[in-house]
Predict the structure.
Amino acid sequence: AGLGTRFLGHIERCAVLLHMIDVTAEDPVAAYKTVRAELKAYSAELAKKPEVIAFNKVDALDDKALEKKLKAFTTKVKKTPLAISAAGNLKITEVMRALMKIINTSRGIDTTAKAAVTTDEWHP
C-alpha cells in the first residue's frame, strides 16, 4: 500500500534518511528503487534529502552471497550500502556516525573538531 502520506509527512522534517534494506530479500535493488520512487512521487524535496543506505541482516548470508549482493547493488544504484546486523549489533556505530555527520553538517556543526561518536552520544 506504499509508505503512507502520514509517514512521508513525518520524515520531511528529518535531516537525513536511513534506508535499511533486508539483504536476505530476493532483490534489494528493486526494494530500494521502489522506496526511492515513492519518495520522489511524494515530494522532490524529500527525494533530495541525504541518505545513508544499510544492508541489514548481513550475518544471515555467507561472505560470497553478501559480496554478490553488495556488488550488484553498487553497480546498479551507484551507491555502496553499509553492511550491518541490527540484531547482532554489527557496525551499528558506523551507521550512527554516518547519520550524525550529516545531521551535524545540516546544523552547521563542525564535525572535524568532534571526537568519535559513541552510542552514548547518539541522542543530540
Observations:
- The longest helix spans residues 28-42.
- Confidence is low (pLDDT under 50) at residues 117-124.
- The two ends are 33 Å apart (CA to CA).
- The first strand starts at residue 17 and ends at 22.
